[in-house]
């Protein structure tokens, strides 16, 4: 009788649990090691507690990496349709919000509990409270060294997460394990995170939400842009569009570049149309004071700030605004540029950019090119998705590939 493959999965997040269940369903003897007191802890905070686990819109641009073709190769092997099928087979019925897929229960705990039930159903041996320190290659497999104990395995799948949200168990310890096995790391930095900006005026506009466009520049060159609801904070900028461009800010700052963010507070109008709009607005109500010129158009905190920057007295009549003053206001509305000095910490970041260099991993199996029998899945590798369920999509897809490959390899 053929001996079962003994597979150790390090990390009990989405990718780890998916890899473990997949390997067990292929007939492997699976051991899952999680350093927190429970598996799936990070799932509970995803999607504001609702867990947006995939998205019907899938393009290569939804995933970022220093090896840009790698994540898309993985996603083509196990696309969103298969993720939907897999979750439905497990009992998670999808709720579709404009292509963003959530569990019908709107509870992230549903996803965590379902994956935990799948571990039990497939007979995965789960050990929690186990902090893994090192993987050693031995003649007949691997030895996983943990605090106070060790485990043997024929194959190992490393799914230890990134440094983002360390309270959930993602403390970056997996990177050290990968490095000891000879793997290179792309610099690990906060992503899907808020931007800290210079300017004392931010405390005066804190709390304002506005639909706008952010364009990020590194050393004067456009790096990324996105449109949607921006949130202004005392420290700088937040909101989903900010999160979407933040990985480029992190990388630029790490590389010592000058990073700037330009905000367009009226992206639906061109600069010339915005100027013409203000001219007509001034002609329409010339008796108004400048203080009320933009009332009903922008938040008063913003209009007050722009008047101050343009050196326009609040009491000045709108009908007496000069062409130069109208152009200055237009420029502030359309091209409000601030310097980015940093990002919030790993504690506030939803994910990280960087990680294990994917050029050292086979995309079709997630097996190491350097250490046969060692596999990777999830956030530990240099792949980060945009907001919208893409990071969980990659975690599931890479977990399935790693689990199946590790279990079936001769």
From TrEMBL:
Family annotation (NCBIfam families): aminoacetone oxidase family FAD-binding enzyme
Record-linked InterPro entries: BaiN-like (IPR004792), BaiN-like_dom_sf (IPR023166), FAD/NAD-bd_sf (IPR036188), RsdA/BaiN/AoA(So)-like_dom (IPR055178), RsdA/BaiN/AoA(So)_Rossmann (IPR057661)
RsdA/BaiN/AoA(So)-like Rossmann fold-like domain: residues covered: 6-404
Keywords: FAD, Flavoprotein
Coiled-coil boundaries: none
Pfam family, one: HI0933_like
Keyword NADP: no
Protein name: HI0933 family flavoprotein
Gene3D superfamilies associated with the record: FAD/NAD(P)-binding domain, HI0933 insert domain-like, Translation factors
Domain RsdA/BaiN/AoA(So)-like insert: 190-351
UniProt cofactor(s): FAD
């Amino acid at each position: 009788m053929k001996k079962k493959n003994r597979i150790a999965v390090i990390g009990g997040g989405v990718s780890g649990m998916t890899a473990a269940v997949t390997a067990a369903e292929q007939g492997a003897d699976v051991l899952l090691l999680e350093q927190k007191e429970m598996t799936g802890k990070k799932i509970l905070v995803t999607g504001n507690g609702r867990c947006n686990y995939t998205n019907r819109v899938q393009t290569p641009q939804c995933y970022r990496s220093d090896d840009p073709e790698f994540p898309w190769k993985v996603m083509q092997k196990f696309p969103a349709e298969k993720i939907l099928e897999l979750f439905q087979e497990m009992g998670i019925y999808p709720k579709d919000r404009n292509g963003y897929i959530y569990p019908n229960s709107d509870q992230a705990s549903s996803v965590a509990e379902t994956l935990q039930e799948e571990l039990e159903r497939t007979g995965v041996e789960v050990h929690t409270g186990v902090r893994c320190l090192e993987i050693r290659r031995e003649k007949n497999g691997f030895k996983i060294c943990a605090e106070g104990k060790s485990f043997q395995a024929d194959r190992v799948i490393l799914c230890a997460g990134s440094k983002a949200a360390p309270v959930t168990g993602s403390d970056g310890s997996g990177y050290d394990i990968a490095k000891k096995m000879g793997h290179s790391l792309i610099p690990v930095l906060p992503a899907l995170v808020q931007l800290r900006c210079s300017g004392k005026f931010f405390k005066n506009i804190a709390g304002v939400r506005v639909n706008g466009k952010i364009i990020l520049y590194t050393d004067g060159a456009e790096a990324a842009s996105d449109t949607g609801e921006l949130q202004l904070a005392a420290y700088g900028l937040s909101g989903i569009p900010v999160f979407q461009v933040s990985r480029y800010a992190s990388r630029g700052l790490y590389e010592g570049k000058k990073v700037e963010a330009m905000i367009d507070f009226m992206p639906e109008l061109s600069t010339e149309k915005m100027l013409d709009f203000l001219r007509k607005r001034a002609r329409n109500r010339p008796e108004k004071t400048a203080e009320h010129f933009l009332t009903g158009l922008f938040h008063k905190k913003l209009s007050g700030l722009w008047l101050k920057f343009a050196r326009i007295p609040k009491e000045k009549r709108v009908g007496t605004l000069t062409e130069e003053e109208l152009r200055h206001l237009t420029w502030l509305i359309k091209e409000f540029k601030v310097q980015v000095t940093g990002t919030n910490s790993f504690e506030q970041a939803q994910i990280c950019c960087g990680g294990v260099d994917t050029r050292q991993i086979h995309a079709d199996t997630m097996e190491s090119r350097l250490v046969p029998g060692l596999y990777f899945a999830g956030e530990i590798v240099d792949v980060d998705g945009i907001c919208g369920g893409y990071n969980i999509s990659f975690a599931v897809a890479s977990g399935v590939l790693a689990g199946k490959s590790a279990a079936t390899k001769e």
